[in-house]
């Protein structure tokens, strides 16, 4: 199969897979944002800092420039990290499924 056809089939499979798990992904994104806003409210951060913190903590497990100080906000930050790991795992699983769906059968 030509590489252009493989890429096209992969993208189609990827978008179909993401469409299937989109409700879960959107719930995780909303939960990450909501927890970040709660942390920001308790810590006295601006909304933009709270959203920045939630995405950086959720998708990269943090840079360290913003750090929660109280025990409750640290616990919420751990929940953000867990949601981020779940989000990344779901996207990776969909990508792997899309790759295996387009793989040519090796029947020897």
Overview features:
about 110 residues, mainly alpha
Radius of gyration: 18 Å
> Count of DSSP E strands?
0
Number of helices: 3
The first-to-last residue Cα distance is 17 Å
| SS-derived structural category | mainly alpha
Shape: elongated
Largest sheet: none
Strand content: under 5%
The mean pLDDT is 91
Oligomer: single chain
Helix content: over 70%
What are the segments in which pLDDT stays under 50 over at least 5 consecutive residues? none
Order of helices and strands: HHH
Protein architecture, described:
The two termini are 17 Å apart. The mean pLDDT is 91. The protein is mostly helical. It has three helices and no strands. 18% of the residues are buried. α1 packs across α2 (47-60), α1 (3-43) runs antiparallel to α3 (71-102) and α2 packs across α3 (71-102). The protein is elongated, with a radius of gyration of 18 Å.
What topology emerges from the helices and strands here?
Layout: H1 3-43, H2 47-60, H3 71-102
Helix pairs in contact: 1-2, 1-3, 2-3
Describe, in short, the structure shown.
With 108 residues, this protein is mostly helical. Helices cover 81% and strands 0% of the residues.
């Amino acid at each position: 199969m030509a590489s252009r056809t493989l890429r096209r089939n992969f993208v189609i499979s990827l978008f179909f897979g993401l469409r299937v798990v989109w409700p879960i992904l959107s719930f995780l994104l909303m939960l990450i944002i909501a927890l970040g806003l709660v942390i920001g409210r308790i810590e006295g951060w601006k909304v933009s800092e709270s959203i920045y913190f939630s995405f950086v903590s959720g998708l990269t497990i943090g840079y360290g420039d913003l750090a929660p100080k109280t025990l409750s906000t640290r616990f919420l930050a751990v929940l953000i990290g867990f949601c981020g790991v779940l989000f990344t795992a779901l996207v990776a699983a969909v990508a792997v499924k899309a790759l295996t769906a387009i793989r040519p059968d090796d029947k020897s």
